[in-house]
Amino acid sequence: MSQATSRTELISKTALTYILLVILSMLCIFPFVILIINSTRFHSEIQKGFSLAIGSAFGQNWTKLLSDKNIPIVRALLNSVFISTCASVLTVYFSSMTAYGIYMYKFKFRDVASNFIMIVMMVPTQVSTLGFIRLMQQMGLMNSFIPLIIPAIAAPVVFFFLLQYMRSILPFDIVEAARIDGSNEFYTFNRIVVPILSPAIAVQAIFAFVANWNNFFLPLLILNSKEKWTIPIIIAQLRSADYLKFDMGQVYMTICIAIVPLLIIYLLLSRFIISGVTMGSVKG
Amino acid sequence: MSRPIAAKKRKTVEYTRWGYFFIAPFFIIYTVFALIPLISTFYNSFFETYRIGLSQVGPNFVGIQNFISVFTESKIYIYAWNTVLLWVLNFIPQIAVSLLLAVLFTSSSMNIKGQQFFKTVIYMPNLIMASAFSMLFFALFSDGGPVNSMIVNAGLVSEPIRFGSSVGWTRALICIMNFMMWFGNTTILLMAGIMGIDNSLFEAARIDGAGTGKVFFRITMPLLKPIFVFVFITSLIGGLQMFDVPQILTNGSGNPDRTSMTLIMFLNKHLASRNYGMAGAVSVLIFFVTGALSLVAYRVTMRGYRDSGATN
Amino acid sequence: MRKILVALLALTVATGAVGLFAAPKFSDGGKVLTIYVWNDEFQTRFKDYFEKAGLVPKDVTVNWVVTPNQDNAYQNKLDEALLNQDKASPNDKIDIFLVEADYALKYVNTDASLDVMKDVGLTKADLSQQFQYTKDIMTDKNGVLKGVSWQGCPAGFIYRRSIAKEVLGTDDPAKVQAQIDSWEKFDAVAAKLKAKGYFAVSGYDDDFRVFTDNATVPWVDKNGKIQIDQNINKWIDQTKEYTDKGYNNKASLWSAESSAGAGPNGKVFGYFGPGWFIDFCLAGWSKADPKGPDALGNGTYGDWAFAKGPQGFSWGGTWLVAAAGTDNISLVKSIFKKMTVDQSTLTAIAKDKGDFTNNIAVINNLANDKKFGNKFLGGQNYYGLLVDSAKKISRKNITGYDQGCTEALMAAFKDYFDGKVTKDQAWGNFYTAILEKYPNLKK
């Protein structure tokens, strides 16, 4: 094949690639553009049809939403932040602890435990929801944040990630050295191992935070009262309540508040987050 | 000579016991909050427990009556079919596009610029709250919504397309949303996989005169198998649990004609109306179906993983 | 007291249910008044007429617990809360909960609702001016009244004056009524409207209530078997015909598309509804500028009028029920009195909001008031039209399952009207949904 044809081939392939990328990017961006534009328009303007012009109702939609006692959005934001933060901290800390236990110590049931966790990873959590709810009812923990936070301690997928990560970068002799220095195992874990794992822990914490933030199924069943709602529950209210759709400007504004904060955090940390996708999950 | 070794052995044994300490929290919490509920779910499925108005019926032991009801009266096989279909229709385009993108991004000959920008953009939907995303699509694609407004004004159609009333469109929207949320993640994983392949293999192939296609199918794909396995399994497990997106889009009804009702949406209906007997039966069935599928997927792909002689 | 015990015993034996609570029926002096509702209709009236009048004690906070109605969510939440009433802390105890006709029966015949006369303290004189059917619905099998309402709901057809002028040649309510006073005539008008590019109704569910309210058979018989009145079949066939002929805009009840039909660019001729539909729904939908004046020119506001329509019917209604275990009994009493008995309040609500308030004297006064006109209805005084029908409304066929059945039917048949399923498939889906919601019913 001559140089000339392979060069044109290359150029056209490149051009097509860019076109594909642009199309996919537009696909990913366009819903959010419409979202933001529509949250700046009045309900009547929205009903008339779509236009790319930014409206002037942003302030009004915002204040109306914040003052609507039936949609406690600020409260829900705080609740979501609280639950997500607590849960993600617990998840990453205890997952690293569990992974460390499996990795570092050759105890008798090590393989059994490890396989058990792998199997557990396959079980969708929703199948035990019924039993979970009954248990929470008996423990008097319905409509509380505890059922959404404490179980985060046992997170098989995060365990798996951290185990892989450890396998690739944690040497055994660090621990031996610490033992000689007289530190006990738990102290070693907290003071020496965790810092070494911190890039992976940070990334997994972000993923855990996002997963908890977006969690819908369980909170919907557990949280009953307005004060305890999280953002996804508010979205569900929005979808099912007929009278709430009487003002579409407010609807778009609510969706905005549900989506935009996390987007902003993402854009600030995008490099870190994207690199975290592959950290430890790919060998070598 | 023997004493120091014996001493070391004892010390090692003492240390290994620490393993139990470290894994204890996980297992305790898991037992209390996951294992016991699972067993309780199985237990509940044999009882009839629901509410009529303010009065409670049951728990009355009914044996396998709930299961019989599920099989004969409910359309669970339809919901199972919907769930699998929705997953397949999302996964196939997703893996195809992601593979394509991953290859294009890592192509040494093309050297695409602005990769970081594109990666950021395509990964973005992954972080969006699925329920809010679905609500947004509901609003965007409603009969009087922006999308219809745009296509009517552009003259592409003469009257609005009623997306929500169409089986095909409702399912398509669900798949599009899932595609958008996950293809960025898949692309990045596949990219990392490709970059992990030793370049000398590609060089050797080129020297031997292999074209792009052959290189892709004979070298890239086989060596990507581990990642592919991982993506396939996680996507399948996630797909079987699909709830947020169709629930919000169809407001829990799975309409039109329940064609977009997934297994978990069906389970949710019983949980929400506190019909614990039926919810239990449905949960047990879902457990076995997804468990079996996951096991099969795991076995098949792990075998492929081992066979492909992947790195240790 | 003994009557209630006997009722409780009978209820327990009959349903095998666990006994209901035995805590004190009510007390006073609570600091939080908890009201369970499913939308903000009562909330706005409460704010405008009770709170603004300074009638809420300074140390009491009003807590509105709002759960949307759809999919039985409101009822489920209410049920959970009522079942937990004893164990709830004083501030969480439900004091008042609202119910709709569609499921009122569920609560009327239980101990969860208080006797309006004996427990809350309204007198026979207080209740004398309320329309009889509003009391009948909330009377339990022992003749005890369990709830009161501020509104009656005789309903009619609310139409656009300008469209009427253009298509029918007149917008005068009496003359328009003459052209739509039977279904055959209504069908003919629908055809005329279509010819000029208008829709007779906005969608599938608009005249549902006209048919079901005139049904002779309840949704569920006393053995738990689901029954389908022939009027429902009539509704299905009519709607399918209207859809196929393009007489409606294919919208579903309460959707954005349905409400847009009444707006500045709307092409819908009219909506079936009672008084509350005017203020709670149409007024908001019609305005172009939501903050603008409630006057002609703001969208379609003021361009409407009320006619009786092809068939008389009633729709809905909201009742206030005092919850057993309330800790704010005197505040509850004063709310009930002010909002459902006090004539000046009920007159104000009628004049400001267009509600058909639940007081015969007030309505008669308004009907005879030549100076009174509803701004939304272009100055029309519609009360006279409906006084008689309000007195004749009978709700003897309601069951506690009505809401679930109604929703399930509309959802199942939307697919049929859209042409996605056959009638038989739609019926199948209907029964599936009903049996999921109410496992104790039978086909």
Explain this structure.
The complex is a heterotrimer of chains A (284), B (312) and C (443). Chain A is mainly alpha-helical. Chain A has two domains: 3-59; 65-278, MetI-like fold. Chain A has 13 helices and no strands. The longest helix of chain A has 36 residues, at 3-38. With 312 residues, chain B is mostly helical. Chain B has two domains: 2-44; 65-307, MetI-like (MetI-like fold, Orthogonal Bundle), CATH 1.10.3720.10. Helices cover 72% and strands 4% of the residues of chain B. In chain B, strands 1-2 form a two-stranded antiparallel ribbon. Chain B is globular and about 75 Å long. Chain B starts with a helix and ends in a 5-residue tail after the last helix. The relative contact order of chain B is 0.13. Chain C has 443 residues and is of the alpha/beta class. Chain C folds into two domains: 2-152 and 316-365, D-Maltodextrin-Binding Protein, domain 2; 155-314 and 374-392, D-Maltodextrin-Binding Protein, domain 2 (3-Layer(aba) Sandwich). In chain C, 45% of the residues lie in helices and 11% in strands. Chain C contains 20 helices and eleven strands. In chain C, the strands form three sheets. Chain C has a five-stranded mixed β-sheet with strand order 2-1-3-11-4, sandwiched between helices. In chain C, strands 5, 8, 9 and 10 form a four-stranded antiparallel β-sheet that branches. Chain C has a two-stranded parallel sheet with strand order 6-7. Chain C is globular, with a radius of gyration of 22 Å. Residues 4-21 of chain C have low confidence and may be disordered. The chains are: A mainly alpha (284), B mainly alpha (312), C alpha/beta (443). Chains A and B meet through helix 1, helix 4, helix 5, helix 6 and helix 10 of A and helix 1, helix 3, helix 4, helix 5 and helix 6 of B.
